[in-house]
Design a protein that fits this description.
Elements (H helix, E strand, L loop, with lengths): L1 H17 L42 H5 L7 E3 L12 H13 L5 E6 L6 H21 L7 E7 L10 H7 L1 E6 L1
Parallel strand pairs: 2-3
Antiparallel strand pairs: 1-4, 2-4
Helix pairs in contact: 3-4
Keywords: Cell cycle, Cell division, Cell outer membrane, Lipoprotein, Membrane, Palmitate, Signal
Protein name: Peptidoglycan-associated lipoprotein
Membrane topology: Lipid-anchor
Length: about 180
């Protein structure tokens, strides 16, 4: 009986410590934007200027390509996310292009070969894309221009079950958006 009373008192004390004392239906809201709300709260006032930039969905193929005559694929050794020296100039070229075109964005897609489990390959693909992302950031590309994702072994470049196929699938691709 004493244990139950003690347990109930402890639970009441914990719940009392968690309360904020502010009623949820009376929380003050402060508008720091300096924009007054329209009289009709259902939508923006007619003739009001929007601060949202328009989306350009019809980029030409040249715009999607990124820098001219520069490859977009970095290959990795087996079970490695270390960038080989022969791909450093490729990454430097993309970094120069991105710094000169600060409105452009890239997605770095990490891939693996078919060996290994799905979770392991997703993690390895992510490490590969993150290593390219870090290299771009070290070369001065802002973080806001670069996104990294992993496809693991789900999108192979080459179908096959030999070393030549696996070499083509261990990669990170730079895709311009």
């Amino acid at each position: 009986m004493k244990k139950r009373v003690f347990l109930a008192a402890a639970m009441v004390a914990v719940l009392a410590a968690c309360s904020s004392g502010v009623p949820l239906n009376n929380v003050p809201v402060e508008d720091k934007t300096g924009v007054t709300a329209p009289a009709d709260a259902s939508g923006p006032a007619s003739g009001a200027q929007s601060n949202v930039a328009p989306v350009q969905a019809d980029l030409s193929a040249a715009d999607k390509a990124g820098p001219a005559n520069v490859a977009r694929i970095i290959y990795f050794d087996y079970d490695s996310n270390e960038i080989k020296p022969e791909f450093r100039s490729l990454i430097e070229a993309h970094a120069r292009f991105l710094k000169a075109n600060n409105r452009r964005h890239v997605v770095i897609e990490g891939h693996t070969d078919e060996r290994g489990g799905s979770e392991y390959n997703l993690a390895l693909g992510q490490r590969r894309s993150e290593s390219v992302r870090r290299a771009l950031e070290l070369l001065g590309v802002p973080d806001s221009q670069v996104e990294s994702v992993s496809f693991g072994k789900e999108k192979p470049a080459v179908d096959g079950h030999d070393e030549a196929s696996w070499q083509q699938n261990r990669r990170a691709e730079i895709a311009y958006r």
